[in-house]
Design brief:
Elements (H helix, E strand, L loop, with lengths): L1 E5 L25 H10 L2 E8 L1 H4 L5 H17 L6 E5 L15 H10 L7 E4 L2 H9 L3 E5 L4 H7 L7 E3 L2 H10 L1
Parallel strand pairs: 1-2, 1-4, 2-3, 4-5, 5-6
Amino acid sequence: MKLIVLDRDGVINFDSDRFIKTPDEWRAIPGSLEAIAWLNQRGYRIAVATNQSGIGRGLLDIAAFNAINDKMTRQLAQVGGRIDAIFFCPHAADANCECRKPKAGMLREIARRFSIEMKGVPVVGDALRDLQAAQEVEAQPVLVATGKGKTTLKEGGLPPNTIKHDDLAAFATDFATA
């Protein structure tokens, strides 16, 4: 099975320092939905692994989170794409849970659900914590310059084998044609 794991906010959609709390606030980054559809058409399954501390902070509830994801999957279906599974950590940063990136609990759960090894599986994110979680399970860390990506790149300290791309569309094109 060919699998790619994506962070959501900052990779698929525009991020906000005030959190994405409603479907109206969710806006796809140009080309991201088409990139997912393009990967699907080449046989890749897509899983999303996203920290959603806004839930733990009481800024949104599970119903709002699900409504946001419904909007995303509807828009994705309109361009011929799909997400096979969405994994999320609802805990606030101070919860010290195992699922919040940079810990790799969500990635381990993805491996269990899809019955695969994570070694070499691309994990695309815009923040250092996404890359650190990937490194912990020997997945391939991929940094995109959207969202917090430019700041992450500037701050440095990336895992040594991190692949860098301008956005999800550039990653998809380079990855699936390599």
